[in-house]
Design brief:
This protein is α+β, with helices and mostly antiparallel strands and about 200 residues long. It has five helices and seven strands; from the N terminus they run αββββααβββαα.
Amino acid sequence: MAFFATPKGASRRMVFEDSVLPVIEAGQAITIGAKGGDYLGNFTFLPTPGHSSGHMSISRKTGGEEAIFTGDVAHNPVQIHHPEWVSAFCAEVERSRASRRWLLDYAGDRNAMLFTAHFPESSVGVVARRDGGFTWKYLLRHCGESLRRFRGGVRMASREICNRGLAVTILADALHPTFGPSARGIGSRTSVAHKWI
């Protein structure tokens, strides 16, 4: 939390104050250690630092399948093909590259479904290895399609939410009843042009 009081954190303070601070002030925050780990027996927090120092992705396994909520590991599908490319929004360039490569290896080894936060289309897809790198395949083309592969606790957002431009990866209602599809700032996609370095 101290980061948001620094000059570097100023540009992100609004998000913290809008979406994180109210949860802390309500006494509803649960801390996950820097090494990640299991939560409620259903979720595993995977450290993927780089976008920010404490960034984590979240894995959910059920019925022999795995879904990973990637957060800000990648901002655009081009980063699947070029994991070395870094968004201007990443605070730690080398760690973001290493985390992205690690997550791609992890997901590729498990044929895990990825729920991304910023990709266009549905933001849901899988990675596969090809020619020493990775490819990306969308699993859903729009919010109206049903999620056929992964039924165990992952629900798509309502059409109303999809029409407002929010990602179908709303996880917060599964993590804590305080959250829900009406919570502001959860899963929203940006329409900002990214600068690659």
